[in-house]
Amino acid sequence: QVQLVESGGGLVQPGGSLRLSCAASGSMFRFWMGWYRQGPGRQREPVAGITSGGTTDYGESVKGRFTISRDNTKNAVYLQMNSLKLEDTAVYYCSAKDRPRAYWGQGTQVTVSS
Fold first, then answer.
1. CA-to-CA distance for 111 and 56, rounded, in angstroms?
2. What CA–CA distance (Å, rounded) separates 6 from 79?
3. What is the rounded end-to-end Cα distance, in angstroms, of the chain?
4. Residue 27 — pLDDT band, cuts 50, 70, 90?
5. Alpha-carbon distances of 65 from 18, 57, 88, rounded to whole Å
6. Beta bridge partners of residue 84, listed in sequence order
7. Which of 21, 39, 71, 102 is spaced 20 to 30 A from 50 at the CA atom?
């Protein structure tokens, strides 16, 4: 059973930056990995994803501000978040998928507030 543990969330002012990390308990080199988020009163939505080969994809609302990366030697995926906005406030979840398997972390809170 793979476990994913997120870290790096916190409170930041609008315009600030945070870097989220997700550490996996096993080898993830074959897995698609990504980040989702769920804001207050909203459904969970995809934020960014990265394939095993390094191809990335982003949600429209974060394009140009967020960058996803992975380090297969450390079984980790990262999300660099810049120019944060109030509407980025959410619980951010790490996900790893290799169909039909899918794993989720417990989430880390990101709060953008002045």
1. 25
2. 10
3. 40
4. confident
5. 11, 13, 11
6. none
7. 39
